[in-house]
Amino acid sequence: MQRLEQLRAWLASILPGQAFNLAPASADASFRRYFRATFADGGPSRIVMDAPPEKEDIRPWLQVAALFRNAGAHVPDVLAQDLEHGFLLLSDLGATTYLSALQTAGGADLHDAAHLYADALGALAAIQHASRPGVLPEYDRALLLREMMLFPEWYIARHKNTTLSDAEAAQLRTVFDRILDVNLAEPRVFVHRDYHSRNLMRLAPGDGLGPNPGIIDFQDAVHGPITYDLVSLFKDAYIRWDEEFILDLLIRYWETAKKLGLPVRGEFADFHRDFEWMGVQRHLKVLGIFARLHHRDGKGGYLADMPLVMDYLRRACKRYRDLGPLLKLLDRLDPEDTQVGYTF
């Protein structure tokens, strides 16, 4: 409560004479909180970020916002900031996420969905085209491995209450090394790192909010493998699409990326293999994160999204012989290979 009062006092100091109401704007897996400020005079609403300095550093958010904005992507404008207390006043990109828009449509119109994803790919290509090394942290071997290690630590040991044998642990590390070899051989660009349906805002022309999509939650951006954000977008933990639909969009991206001079593979088969193996790394990480959010942070809602992530992981493991030991382990942990989610 004291933190919220500090936030209200700060807003009152930078918006003198303006009466406002605050309401929660979105849920977040981090310690950040977001509020929507609405005003008695009917002016445009604003978003307020509350990032406790002892738990969250807002400087990376500000850095990446500037990078992506200069690249031509639509991110929130920074209207006021208090770095000492961790407060930001931002433009409001609306309340309709891609996930909400796609679920509301029921997935019946693939044409509309394809348009939304085309907009998202256009924004992503702009970000990638602006990439240069030495600006953002490198998505290096140590970081990629640290993320994957969340899987044995939180999913296997904590969520499944399972102890690996020495042989299984050695096999898992061998598979991890192989995954990393493929990931790190990819061309490198700016990577949002969570470029999915909950972090893309659907902005319609009549909204007056600007070009679609609005992009949020980019503070963990790095310089890394070019397929990573495509995995986040198309192998989304929160919504499932038919593989044929995704493959079509992926081919369109690859063709456009080549024309733009982005560093994609010369052959689509090689590019698609990179995409699949990058997905394995991400899904191992996500399963570990979802388990940690549940067991450590009391955020059990993410458990409902685990089966879809596991299904993505299994499908990829079945396609590549080198991932066989991982598939065998998954069969021991989750013996029922249940088909989940919706195919639109």
UniProtKB/TrEMBL annotation:
One Gene Ontology term of the molecular function aspect: transferase activity
Protein name (record): Aminoglycoside phosphotransferase
SUPFAM superfamilies cross-referenced by the UniProt entry: Protein kinase-like (PK-like)
Natural source organism: Thauera linaloolentis (strain DSM 12138 / JCM 21573 / CCUG 41526 / CIP 105981 / IAM 15112 / NBRC 102519 / 47Lol)
Record keyword Nucleotide-binding present: yes
Keyword set, alphabetical order: ATP-binding, Nucleotide-binding, Transferase
Coiled coil location: none
Domain Aminoglycoside phosphotransferase: 23-253
